[in-house]
Amino acid sequence: MTYVNVGHTGLDQNRMLEWIAQNGVRAVYLIHDLIPITHPQYCRPGESAKHKLRMRHALSSAAGLVCNSEATRDALAEFASELDLSMPPDIVAWISGPRLPAGVVPRTLERPYFVTLGTIEARKNHILLLKIWQSLAATMGNEAPILVIIGQRGWEAETTIAMLDQGQELEGHVRELGRCDDEELAGWLNGARALLMPSFVEGFGLPIIEALQLGTPVIASDLPVYREIVGDIPTYLDPLDGSGWDRAIRNFTGNDRERTRQLRAATRYRAPNWQSHFARVEDWLSRL
């Protein structure tokens, strides 16, 4: 019997390994990321130790591992090496998400706007964007673009949340949406000057895939996983380069040459899909 675990569920429990051993199960795990291990400062207290246990159990009990990106596989291989554990047979298979509806009417606001998408947590670096919008509001007034934040409030983000709740200088310049459905999201992305993703670390990058599917430009942190999945289409910046992000956002508010380059490049982009993911994984499973 083959057991496929796609969400790290139960991997921190010893009884999972006991069940696998007692039943002769061939276990295959989908590994999403090692962020709690490599960047514990961005995670809930105790999550790093729990994730180390998950990954140790995965390495010791798996018949095979599916990694969602080369970046995730590299991080896992480094972790295995540190523990002097061997890597089980593995495959890299990019994941996908629900394909956003095509032909959705772009959302419009009274001024140009940008979108950032994802849970409000420390590693997503929303605080960089809020500080930039404070500067934009101070220097441009009612001519400043609007920032639309799509994502629920998370953890390790007290300063960001305080700025959203108490920052009067951001009033009228920043809109926070806790969640929206696929059609609403497509409308927001379709009308945006760009998707902004200043994350410090990611295991994959579905938001940038969703944006490029719709032909929306992307300004993103220069992360290996982003370059892996979307190549050189986005405009890449260091997540600590506040002046660079400020300059790019101001430029993309207008008809900047870099934004025009992205619009052309996005027409050639082909996103990963679930059909190719499962075709690749199922072929590999049949030979495992």
Judged by helices, strands and strand pairing, the structural class is: alpha/beta
Number of strands: 10
Give the percentage of residues in beta strands: 5-15%
User: Biggest sheet: strands, sense, closure?
Assistant: 4 strands, parallel
How many domains is the backbone divided into?
Answer: 2
CATH topology of the largest domain: Rossmann fold
Rg on CA atoms, Å: 21 Å
CATH hierarchy: architecture of the largest domain: 3-Layer(aba) Sandwich
Spatial strand order of the main sheet: 1-2-3-4
Low-confidence stretches: none
Cα(first) to Cα(last) distance is 13 Å
CATH class of the largest domain: Alpha Beta
Question: Based on CA inertia axes, which overall geometry fits?
Answer: globular
The CATH H-level superfamily of the largest domain is: Glycogen Phosphorylase B
Give me the number of helical elements: 12
Give an overview of the whole structure.
This protein is α/β, with parallel strands linked by helices and 288 residues long. The protein has 2 domains: 110 residues, no CATH class; 154 residues, Rossmann fold (3-Layer(aba) Sandwich), CATH 3.40.50. Helices cover 44% and strands 15% of the residues. The chain contains 12 helices and 10 strands. The strands form 3 sheets. The protein has a 4-stranded parallel β-sheet with strand order 1-2-3-4. The protein has a 3-stranded parallel β-sheet with strand order 5-6-7, with helices on both faces. A 3-stranded parallel β-sheet has the order 8-9-10, with helices on both faces. Helix 5 packs across helix 10. The longest helix has 15 residues. The model has no long low-confidence stretch (mean pLDDT 94).
